[in-house]
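Encode chain A's predicted structure.
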Amino acid sequence: MVDIEKNPYKEDFPLLAGHPELAFLDSAATAQRPACVLDAERDFYAQMNANPLRGLYSLSVRATSEIAAVRRQIASLIGAVDEAGKPAANDIIFTRNTSESLNLVAKSFAPCVLGAGDEVAVTIMEHHSDLIPWQQACRAAGAALVLLYPDDQGVIRDDEIAAKIGPKTRIAAVTEVSNVLGVRNPVEKIAEAAHAQGAYVVVDGAQSVPHMAVDVRELGADFLAFSAHKALGPMGIGVLWGRRELLDAMPPMLTGGEMIDSVTEQDATWAPVPEKFEAGTQDAAGIYATGAALTYLTRTVGYDAVAARESALVSYLMGRMAELDFIDVIGPADASAHHGVVSFNVRGVHPHDVASILDASGVCIRAGHHCAQPLLTWLGVENLACCRASVAFYNDKSDVDRLIDGLEQVWQVFHGRD
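Encoded structure for chain A:
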């Protein structure tokens, strides 16, 4: 059994260690960074600051080698292998964030397969980053956007998959874990249904890769996107993995330096993947630090420990919330179905007011629509806004207790002590 009163990790995070008065419960928006990640970014600039790929001198060669190593690390992490069973490092593309990765697929891949009368299937739970690009792609192609809806416990059932994914489906785009409900979607079943129709599967892993082992082969993914900053890494680094034959067939979204093979006065040919999709100077220091973040996440802590601590914290959080008769939890009643995320509202109090009052007590939560307005509309959430507490393995019982104390204070502010 996990002891959530003890916290062996907080001291590894300078912001948390330096500010013990904070209860940081917004890791679904962005994670805190351990010291090793901050050190790695500084070390890049102090020890190997040069532009990767662009120099034959030792600094540039080392920088190039380190970036290549992070590609291999990420490919291994998500189970992306080549025909020889080795990590398919060159199938890893660096972007700025999950949003850019998904836009790249929607703008460069969708036109290759999507035409008038076709369909793109998404869930109502998608973050705007995995919804708006497909709206735009469908509009450009004359295709239709089809939405899959969950039951009252947030589960997309088999009959819904069968009803919504059919002969016209060309692409299915699905978040593995909802950033509002916290549920894990049946990506494997959606992928199986999509592939049976000859469709392609795009997985938003922004809320899954930081918390659980992800294998693109087991998922049945054709593309997977995630962000470093939710997985303990720097802001400004995104990852896109795609099947090599699909990446080869796609045109680049951005053009310019380093993504070319040759240029004439009137034409250009593209460099091979991944350089084809990485125009301009990359955030090499951020990529290098991302490697340190993933090493800390998977080796120092480990996904088993992450899952055990976060599951115990969510269970304790929902148990404490059940003691407050003015809290309405949004999503499944079963705590085990919430992967690090619990969304809720304080009855009769706007979420922005809740967050502001909690902040005065050093409790950090998210309040708003969480870039999921269609989901909140479908759920009938008042004001199209809710509160969200999201835990990470570096949280502990005291963080949850301070949130509960703060929610009681919120209620008292608006309703008095009686």
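Residues 58-77 form the longest helix (20 residues).
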